[in-house]
């Protein structure tokens, strides 16, 4: 056989072979194996941060209960749980609230633990949800004030049940003195009715919770911005006032 008629030594084509410059990487299984440990790092970090912030919220309540420092620590009751929501989502925030309740039950008993969970544990989840969705301040403050008002009535009901006395009577007596003083200043000679007194007590509770939630928003706005988890911007007049100060 001559050299011309001899078959050429060409490499056999592989049916599944792909060029090296193809989009598909040559070792896909190896790259997926390298990416999986990076994704698994989020689970322990979420658990550690949730436990730490839940412990911080419980410690703030514990210190304020036995060593009250006025309204300073009270402002930060719902903030750690709201921060958990901003960083890790709804499920982690609920886990933080439950962890606070269990930890305070061990330290202080179930009654005092329930006084924190309702309303401040739920309030932390609520504020975290509204801040995560970038809801305006007026909406989040209003929802928080409603929840705080429900929490006040829950506290009065629970403590009245345990003490055997109607604590709402003490609230009514204080509101009655305030309304009588206001009627005297305005020159109104008639005495306030029972309906007016009850309505004034409810309005006073709602107003106090509204002011409290506004201060909580201010503290969270100044604190969480520095932690890298900002909340929605306040109204324009608040920004002007803070810049002026």
Protein architecture, described:
The chain is mainly α and about 240 residues long. It is about 75% helix and about 0% strand. The protein has ten helices and no strands. It has helices at about 30-40, 40-65, 70-75, 80-90, 90-110, 110-130, 135-165, 170-185, 195-225, 235-245. The longest helix is centred in the last third of the chain and has 31 residues, at about 195-225. The radius of gyration is 30 Å and the shape is globular. Residues about 1-35 have low confidence and may be disordered.
How would you summarize this macromolecular structure in one to three sentences?
This protein is 73% helix and 0% strand.
Topology overview:
Elements: H1 28-40, H2 42-66, H3 71-74, H4 79-88, H5 90-108, H6 110-132, H7 137-163, H8 168-186, H9 194-224, H10 236-244
Helix pairs in contact: 2-4, 2-5, 4-5, 4-6, 5-6, 6-7, 7-9, 8-9
**Arithmetic mean of pLDDT:** 84
Oligomer status: single chain
pLDDT < 50 stretches:
1-35
> Whole-number radius of gyration?
30 Å
Which characteristics define this entry?
245 residues, mainly alpha
